[in-house]
C-alpha cells in the first residue's frame, strides 16, 4: 500500500489502522468529510493468521489481507492513507488539533484515537503466535474443543480463563511458571473445585510439529505435557500517550473513557477499538468505528443550520450547498462514476456465421 500525498488540513484524522479505525474512516469519508488515516502498522489484527468471528469473511483470510482490503475500500471512497507514527498531539487556540508524525504534520477538526493496546508477553520459550500461542479467548476457544490447552499467568484473569476453557475441553492446565499466584482466596477456592491442573514449574522446552503447531511443553522438572495451544494472561499496555497529551480522561484500568458514540471527555476527540472498554473483537471494534463515524458527522456536518445561526447569518442559499468540500465532492463523483460504469467485455464474441 503506497502512502497518499498528505494535505496540511483535514476535517478528520484517524490515528490507527485496525478494524475500528478503518471503519470510522470509512463512515466519515462516505459522510462527506475530508479524512486521513495515519497508521504506524502492526497491531493485533495484523497478527492474525486466520480471521475468526467476522461474518462474511472466511477463515482463510489473514489479518493482513483483511486490513489491506479495508484500506483499499477507504481510499477508494476518497480518504487518504499514510503510513507513519503519530508521536504528539496538541489543541490549538482555534480549537483544532495538531498531530505531529515522523515525517508529516496535519491540523484537523476531529481526531479518532484507534491506537489499541499491546499484550504483555511472558518470557520465552513460547510457541509461535497462531500456532499454539493465542491471544483471544472468544476468537480461538472453538478450535480447542476436545484438545489439551494451557493457560499462563498468576492473576485473576488467568484463573478465570482456565475455568472458562472447561466449557470446551476437559484437559486444561494453568501454568504459573514458578511465580506466586496472585488470584484471590475466593478464586482459589473456586479453582480448586474445577478439574484444572496447576503446574508451577517453568517451561524449559517447546516441541513443535512439522506444520509449526505446538505439540508439547517440557517443564523444568522433566515433565512433558501435550498441548494444542493456549492463552497467556498477563494483561495489556494501552497506547494512550496521545490521549493523555490531549487531556482525555482515562478509566482506572488504563482504557480511554468514552460515551456510546466514542466521544471522550475532550471536545473533538473520539476513541474506538482496543483502547476503550469492551470486548476486543473485530465486529465490536467495527461497530464502535461506525458509531463514532456517525457521531462525528453529527458534530461536523454543515446542515441543517441551527436557528440561532440562521438568525445571525441568514438563510442557506443554493450557492452554499452542498456542504461538502470540493476535494471530497470530486472524489465521490469519480467513485460513483466508476461504480456505475458497465462491466468491460474481455472475452471474444462469436456469431452464427463462425
Automatic annotation (TrEMBL):
Chain intervals with Basic and acidic residues compositional bias: 327-337
Chloroplast keyword on record: no
Annotated keywords: Flavoprotein, Oxidoreductase
KW Lipid metabolism (keyword) present: no
Region described as Disordered: spans on this chain: 311-354
All copies of domain FAD/NAD(P)-binding, residue ranges: 10-289
InterPro entries: FAD/NAD-bd_sf, FAD/NAD-binding_dom, Ferredoxin-NADP_redctase_2
A GO MF term: oxidoreductase activity
Protein name: Thioredoxin-disulfide reductase
Amino acid at each position: 500500500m503506497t502512502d497518499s500525498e498528505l494535505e496540511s488540513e483535514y476535517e478528520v484524522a484517524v490515528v490507527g489502522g485496525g478494524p475500528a479505525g478503518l471503519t470510522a474512516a470509512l463512515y466519515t469519508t462516505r459522510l462527506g468529510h475530508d479524512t486521513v488515516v495515519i497508521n504506524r502498522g502492526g497491531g493485533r489484527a495484523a497478527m492474525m493468521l486466520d480471521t475468526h468471528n467476522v461474518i462474511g469473511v472466511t477463515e482463510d483470510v489473514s489479518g493482513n489481507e483483511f486490513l489491506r482490503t479495508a484500506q483499499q475500500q477507504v481510499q477508494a471512497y476518497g480518504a487518504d492513507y499514510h503510513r507513519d507514527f503519530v508521536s504528539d498531539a496538541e489543541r490549538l487556540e482555534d480549537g483544532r488539533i495538531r498531530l505531529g508524525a515522523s515525517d508529516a504534520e496535519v491540523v484537523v477538526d476531529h481526531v479518532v484515537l484507534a491506537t489499541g493496546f499491546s499484550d504483555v508477553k511472558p518470557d520465552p520459550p513460547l510457541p509461535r503466535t497462531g500456532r499454539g500461542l493465542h491471544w483471544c479467548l472468544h476468537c480461538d476457544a472453538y478450535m480447542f474443543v476436545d484438545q489439551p490447552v494451557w493457560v499462563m499467568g498468576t492473576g485473576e484473569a488467568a484463573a478465570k480463563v482456565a475455568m472458562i476453557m472447561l466449557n470446551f475441553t476437559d484437559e486444561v492446565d494453568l501454568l504459573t511458571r514458578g511465580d506466586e499466584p496472585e488470584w484471590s482466596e475466593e478464586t482459589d477456592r473456586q479453582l480448586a473445585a474445577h478439574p484444572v491442573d496447576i503446574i508451577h514449574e517453568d517451561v524449559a522446552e517447546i516441541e513443535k510439529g512439522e506444520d509449526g503447531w505446538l505439540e508439547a511443553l517440557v517443564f523444568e522438572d522433566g515433565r512433558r505435557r501435550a498441548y494444542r495451544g493456549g492463552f497467556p494472561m498477563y494483561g495489556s499496555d494501552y497506547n494512550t500517550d496521545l490521549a493523555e497529551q490531549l487531556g482525555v480522561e482515562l478509566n482506572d484500568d488504563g482504557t480511554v473513557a468514552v460515551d456510546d458514540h466514542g466521544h471522550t471527555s475532550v471536545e473533538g476527540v473520539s476513541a474506538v477499538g482496543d483502547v476503550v472498554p469492551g470486548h476486543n473483537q473485530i465486529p465490536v471494534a467495527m461497530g464502535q468505528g461506525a458509531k463514532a463515524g456517525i457521531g462525528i458527522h453529527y458534530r461536523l456536518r454543515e446542515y441543517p443550520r441551527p436557528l440561532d445561526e440562521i438568525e445571525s447569518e441568514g438563510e442557506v442559499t443554493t450557492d452554499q450547498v452542498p456542504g461538502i468540500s470540493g476535494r471530497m465532492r470530486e472524489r465521490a463523483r469519480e467513485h460513483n462514476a466508476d461504480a456505475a460504469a458497465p462491466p468491460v467485455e474481455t472475452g471474444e464474441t462469436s456469431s452464427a456465421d463462425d
